[in-house]
Every structure is written in C-alpha cells, then in structure tokens.
C-alpha cells in the first residue's frame, strides 16, 4: 500500500470524527500531508492560501522542493529528514522559505511529524506551516532600529548610561567612559551612588526618585571622576520601563565654574555700585534685550523695577538738550566697539511730577 492509500485509510477511519475534520480544514495554520518523496497528498485551505495554489495544483507538483528555494534543499534533506524525522519522527520547530505561486519568496515556520506503520516504517508525513513574513519584517525593522540606536549611542557626544531599578549600570557608551575616566568594564561593575560625591549623594538619590515617580528628571549633580576630582554633570534621565532607565549626561564642570565666577563678579559689582553710588546697564543691540542694575534704577529714581523699560524710555531720562549728543555717542561707540566716557545731564522723573537735573558720567 502506498503513502496516499495509507493516508486515505487513516483518514477514512477517522472520518467519523467531525472534530478531526474540523481541526484539519479550519485550522488557521497551514497543514500539509506528504509522502516519503515529498509529494503532496493533501493540504488544508490555509496551506493553499499561504502558497497561492489550489489543492489540485499542489498535488500536481513533483514535490515540496518545487516550492522551496534551492538553498534550503541540502540542509532540509540532511538536517530535517535524516537527522530528525528518520530518527525521532519529529522535526522540531524550524524556519525556512517557500516560493509563492506569484514567484516571491517568503519565510515560514513549520514543524513536521512522521507517521509510521507498526513495523516502524515511515508511511507519510504531515506538517503545520505558518507564514511569518510580518514577524520577520518586524524583527528586521527592530534590528535596524537597534543598529540605528546603537550608532546614535556609540557616536553620541553625551555620556549614555542605562541602569536597572537598583541603579546598577547595565550599558554605557564611550563618552560615558571619557567623562568619568573609568573603563566600560569598570562602569558596568558600578552603580549610580559609586559616582556621586558625598555632597551630591542626597541630590542624586532625589533625582533618581523623581525619575522613578514622574518618568523623567533633569538636574545638575556633582560626580566623582576616577582621578578623585570632583566635577559636575547635567543629567537628563527617562524611564524606559520598570526595569530600565536611560540617562544622558554632559560634563558641565567648566561651564559651572564660569557661571559661578560670573555670579561672584556680579555680586562684587553690585556691592561696588552700592558703595560708589554707581549704576550699570547692558543692551544687546541684536536682540534688543536690556538689563539695568539696581544701582542704575536708583540713579534714575525708579522704584518700579518690574516694568519693562525700552531704549526710548532710557533716552527719556536724558536731558532734552543732551539727547541728540548721547544718541550720537552711542552710535559711534557701537561702530568702533570701544569704551568711551561722556558727561551729560540726566533728566530724572519721579512720580511723573517732580523733576530735577544733575550731571553724571556716562560710560558705554
């Protein structure tokens, strides 16, 4: 009796079971029955749909190799047929490709079983097949996305740290190593507290807690370089999921030093203005932004420091007889980009009623 007859006999014997027929015909996965030479004996509608063939067209094919790309023939014969099905009667789940009736090649996931006679001889085989094109495409997109992400991380000028919920570093980039002075191997054996200075530890812990609670946090925190030097970095952290957290860090040590120095100088300047009865103002001639010092407000007799004062407002304080000359001096100073001093009279207005004049030196 040939494989088809054996299959027909088995199937007929089970035909009384409507459940068996329903499973075979209505299964969403493709099911195919083949003889020991690979010829197709039967297939369910799902298998026909996957390949684009009718059942009769499939039966007329010489064997499954006609719908399988040649690159799979040798491997499938040696690995699946000889090593698995002949020995164990089961192929296990594996992946390969099929050729659709329209000619395009697509990936499938399948598993095959050998049906044996009482004497152990294989009579026919059946297998279930699933089109995994969407899965493979998604995986390909994911790998491309991961490759793109890896490229961004590896080439980022910012330090990148990925930590778990315990604060242990699980992934870092080269910039993180450069900023901290530690090797990648060293950083991956450390946790967030290991890089914090004693003074910044409470702030660092609070920053991590904020990120855990809100999903993101940004802050400036002191850290300890491998050399032992205390530095500062800006940390922008986000929660990726409940177990992974991403932080971008930027070394702002120099910037913070300059900022602290500027603040110190501004405090000294304000103190000097107060002692010497001086005032200063700044104007960005590109943006038009103006900044008047407390001393300058005081010299002009202005008590409302919250109001926005324009350049025209300033000129309104200059004595009418001096306005044209002051405007000319300002224009000349901007042109030559040099500091100059000019004497002029300022015209002070207090409460819009009381006015008086006095001489002062004007430096721009």
Question: What does this 3D model show about the protein?
Answer:
By secondary structure, the chain is an alpha+beta fold. 42% of the residues lie in helices and 27% in strands. It contains 14 helices and 14 strands. It has helices at 3-14, 18-26, 45-51, 55-59, 73-88, 133-155, 174-180, 184-187, 192-195, 201-214, 253-276, 294-300, 311-317, 323-336, and strands spanning 30-34, 40-43, 94-99, 105-116, 122-131, 159-163, 169-172, 216-224, 230-239, 245-251, 281-283, 290-292, 341-350, 354-363. The strands form four sheets. A five-stranded antiparallel beta sheet has the order 2-1-5-4-3. A hairpin with a 6-residue loop joins β11 and β12 (290-292). It starts with a helix and ends with a strand.
